[in-house]
Amino acid sequence: VLPIVLKPRHRGRPGVLNDASGRMIRKLSVSHAFVVSAYYYPKSSLLGNNAIALNVVFDSVSHNLDHVIMIGTNDTEETQFVARTQVESSEACRYATTVATANTVENLTKLEIESNDHKIEIPFKVARTSAPAPVVICVSPQFAAEQWQLLVVHAHVARYFGGHIHLYVTSLVDSFYDLAVEYEKHGYITLDFWMRLKFANASKDAVEPNLHAELRNQAGAESDCLLQYKEAAAFIMFFDLDDILIPRGFNNYFDEITSLYKRHPRTQTFQYTKRELLTYNKPTVEDINIKETLGHVWFVNEEDYGKIITDPSKLNSMWIHQSWNVKKNYISRTNYIIHLQKPVDPDGHDPVSYRRSDFDEMISMKFNTSILDPIQEDLERFINSTKLPEISKRLPKKTFYFPIIYRCYFEKFYRRPKKDSCPNGEGCQMPQRHDINCVNADADFKSGPPMNPITYHYHVNTRWTKQKGC
C-alpha cells in the first residue's frame, strides 16, 4: 500500500488520550492488552544476559504502559523485575504497539506478569541463535493475498543476493499458500502466523482491538521479526512483499549494508527510498522472466517514502516505516528499492486505473541486467525440480481482492484522509466468492484474570485453517 506518515505517539497524562485533532477521549478504569510474543535471550549484545522482550499492543486510553512488572522463575529461584517500554505507534490509534525489555533469572522456565497481587503466565520462546542467511527480510503481514508473482520474483532475487524472506501471513488464497509452502520447504522463505487480535474473555467496555490498531498491528509484526532474529541475523530489512532491492556496486546485501555502516558507524538505521516500476503479472509461473520484470527502465519519476535496514543489535523495536525510538537514521542515496506497487493483470487490465501512475523512460536508472541471468536460471531450475508446475495450474490468473483493498485504502487514507482516524482495513467491505478458498492464521486465544490497570490476553497453538473467503 501507499506509505502512511503519521506523528508518533507522545506520552500524556495516565488515563487520558487525545486524538489527532486534540479532543480528549473518555477515561476508562481498566485497559486491555494483547501479548503478541515474548522472547528470552540467554545472551544479547544490546539487552544483556538473561533478557526478556515483550511485544504487546494495548489500549492506551486508561493507562500509559511505561513499565510492566514481571516475574521470572527457574528451577531454583523466582525474581520480580520491571520491564521498561518503547512505544511504536501513531497518535491516531488507541491501541499502541509497545516493546518492553528487562533482565531476569538464568535458565528461565516461567514468565508471569503481575499487577495488584494478580498474575498471569505468558508463553515465551527462546530467540533464534542462527538465521538461514546473513540478511533477513522481514515482510509485512499478508492478508487476502493473491499476487503470488511478487513472491516468486522476490524469493529468487533475495536468495541470490544472500537474503532470506520471513513472511507473515494472516490469510492467503489457498493455491498461493501451497506455493509459499513449496518455497519454504526448499529454504527460500519462512512462513509465520500473524493473528487478528481476539480476546477470549473481554469486559463489556473493551473496544474492538482490530478497529483501533494501526494496519493490522503491522508495527507489531516488524518488532516481532526484529526480536526473533536480534541475535541471529547480521542485518534486517523491513520490507513489503512488493519491495525489491538489487545491490549496487556490491555482490550481495551483506557487503552493501556493511559498507554503509563503515561510512556511517554511529547510525542506527538506514533508509532507502522507493521507485515505482511498471510491471505486468504473468498468468503462470513458467511465463515469469525476471530480467523482463526488473530489467527495464520505465519508472515513476518521483521517490516514494522508503523502508528501513538495520543491524539488529542497534534496535529493540520497530514501527511500519521507521522506529520512533531511533536517534540516528540515515537516508542512503547510493541505491533505491524497486517498488512493484500496482502490477497490471495478465490480460492488460489495470486494476487501479483510478489512480494512474505516470511512467517515464529513465535511462539513468538502468543497471547491468546480466546480473539477473543467474536468478532466472535459478527460477527455471526450481520450476523443473519442484511441484511448481502442478501448483501453477491452480494459481489465480487475475486479481480479485487486491483492487478491492487498494480502493478502500485509497478512499480512506489517501484521497480524503481523516486526521483523527486510525488507519486500518476494518471498515473495508470484503465481498467473498464461493470459488475462492483461503488459508488463514488461527490459534487458541486466552484471557487472563481481570487485572488493574491492564488485563492481558494472548494466544497459543498457532495453526493454518482453510475456509471459504479471506
From TrEMBL:
It comes from the Eukaryota. It is found in: Membrane. It is an enzyme of class 2 (transferase). This is Glycosyltransferase family 92 protein. Keywords: Glycosyltransferase, Membrane, Transferase, Transmembrane, Transmembrane helix. Signal peptide: none annotated. The lineage of its organism: Eukaryota, Metazoa, Ecdysozoa, Nematoda, Chromadorea. GO terms for molecular function: glycosyltransferase activity. Its EC number is 2.4.1.-. It comes from Caenorhabditis briggsae. The keyword Membrane applies. GO terms for cellular component: membrane. Belongs to the glycosyltransferase 92 family. It is a single-pass membrane protein.
